[in-house]
Design a protein that fits this description.
Blueprint: E1 14-16, E2 20-23, E3 28-31, H1 35-59, E4 61-62, E5 68-69, H2 71-75, H3 80-94, E6 101-105, H4 110-120, E7 124-127, E8 139-146, E9 151-158, E10 167-175, H5 179-190, E11 194-204, H6 209-215, E12 220-230, E13 233-236
Helix pairs in contact: 1-3, 3-4
């Protein structure tokens, strides 16, 4: 028998073993005593993480400390089966947080985000990076700087597709300096909605994005965490 109690709170994230997880950024306390299911989910998550790491090592091209090309399965050509498994991992991790919408930024985050939304059976929203003739009427906007591409862009979200009652999971392909995630958070919170989690496919852990977001209380779940990146060098965080 599985017992979960959810209580509204506001503090920072605390982990106390596998019996108790207090996810404050999600504004909920979770008491989950289903150790068998937790163990199975962790094992499945580890398999997906290892599969992704192998693909990165086999097919990823590290150009320098800032640029990792994964065009063969994520950014240009897409491996649907891998995206499906990643969506399952995100769903399993965040499924008890009461998520009502998945949000991503065009365009490389779309594939893992839509697979996550399918498995959670909820809508997905794509934040536009530039003004669109299709998006007319009232919108939320935030200017974001890309350190990788060294340019600014305007994140845009139509007010028709989000409300103050929404509980949002952000899915993105990369986390580096955290600018994209902070921009997405800004347009979501302008609507009065809550960001309950951030799912990342590939995290550059040697850059400050995770710390910046965690210091603000957000719950980050990354499938692959890179500790070192350089020309021809890809190393992962040991977990």
């Amino acid at each position: 028998m599985r017992n979960i109690i959810i209580v509204n709170v506001l503090a920072s994230q605390i982990f106390l073993g596998c019996f108790f997880r207090l996810n404050i950024n999600a504004y909920c306390i979770k008491f989950d005593f289903s150790l068998e299911k937790n163990s199975k989910m962790k094992k499945e998550g580890d398999i997906i993480m290892n599969l992704l790491k192998r693909r990165i090592l086999q097919e990823g091209i590290a150009l320098n400390q800032n640029v990792l090309k994964v065009d063969s399965f994520l950014n240009h050509q897409v491996d649907p089966k891998l995206m499906y498994e990643m969506g399952k991992a995100f769903k399993d991790y965040f499924e008890n947080c009461g998520i009502t919408k998945v949000v991503t930024i065009e365009s490389s985050g779309i594939a893992p985000a839509v697979m996550t939304a399918i498995q959670m059976n909820i809508p997905m929203i794509i934040l536009k990076k530039q003004k669109s003739k299709i998006l007319s009427g009232e919108v939320y906007q935030k200017t974001v700087h890309s350190f990788t591409k060294n340019l600014d862009y305007e994140l845009t979200l139509s007010k028709k597709y989000i409300c103050k009652d929404d509980k949002v999971l952000i899915i993105d392909d990369f986390l580096a300096y955290g600018e994209a995630a902070l921009g997405a958070i800004s347009v979501i919170e302008q609507a009065g909605a809550n960001v309950l989690g951030i799912g990342i496919v590939i995290e550059k852990s040697f850059q400050p994005g995770r710390k910046i977001l965690e210091d603000k209380g957000y719950n980050i779940y990354s499938l692959a965490r890179i500790s070192k990146l350089g020309e021809g060098i890809i190393e992962f965080v040991e977990e």
